[in-house]
């Protein structure tokens, strides 16, 4: 019994040691980003490398604001990311509910087509999407970034799978007997039951739209509508790159994502593990 207990304790020590190492490896890039952002650019090639934060972080941030309108970029990114997240959660959950719980002609064919569209690279739709946005007169307008992304195939697929496993048909039948319409079934029964799924999809959508670079770079040329990723790109000089300034701006641009993840991490983990334990 003592030998078994000692083996169990060693296993726990090894497991927690592994978790600590993985956590340290995950956090280190952010720590290194702050170290360089608080030093001079020469610190990036220093040997041995700098491991202690310097005292130039505020100075580097001031240089960021001198080169680009970073507050405006942060506001633009937040507006785009928040609007896209809310719209994706609503429309994708509504479509996912239809695919999961409503019987209509061609449902399986449409869902197969939807899943197949996830295999098409996003870059292939770049030119036709640009032509449509140009015809609508939305170039240099945040609508050019928001409208094409208000729903996506992954979100519909995710919500369909989540609703199928989390909402029993008997609950919906009981709602129908009580006189609920289809939309009221969705709003009053399905939505409260899939909050962990909402949190997971919301974090993924917010992070994806916040970090999106290619499409905003194509359709947003006016500096007043630049998102944060384009603003960071504009910090690169033609002949000289001030990495300490760039990484100081990157630290500031990363903070909103970290805050969102920390606020909804519990629901995010719950959404990912839903159904793993019956």
Automatic annotation (TrEMBL):
Pfam families: BPD_transp_1. It is found in: Cell membrane. The chain crosses the membrane at residues 12-32, 73-97, 109-133, 145-164, 185-210, 243-264. Its main location: membrane. It is a multi-pass membrane protein. PANTHER family: ABC TRANSPORTER PERMEASE PROTEIN MG189-RELATED, ABC TRANSPORTER PERMEASE PROTEIN MG189-RELATED-RELATED. Belongs to the binding-protein-dependent transport system permease family. This is Sugar ABC transporter permease.
